[in-house]
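[audit] Reproducing an earlier prediction to check determinism. Same input, same settings, fresh worker. If the C-alpha cells differ from the archived copy the diff job will pick it up downstream; this log only records the rerun itself.
[audit] input (59 residues):
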Amino acid sequence: ADASLLARIDDHAAFDLTLNVLDAQIAAYPVPADCRCIVQVRDFAGAAGTLDLRIEIES
C-alpha cells in the first residue's frame, strides 16, 4: 500500500500549560475510521529516550 505523510509537527505552538515548550502536539486531527496509521517519532539529534504518546478517540 502507498504511504502518505498525514501530519508533521516539531515544537507545539499552543498555549497549553501542561506541555513543555519543546513538546510536540498534533491536536484535533481527523483520521478516517478505516485508516491504518504508523506513528514515527524522532529526536532532532537522533538521541534515544522515552516518550509519552496519548491518542484520544472521540465518537
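[audit] rerun output stored. Observation attached for the diff report: The chain is about 0% helix and 0% strand.
[audit] end
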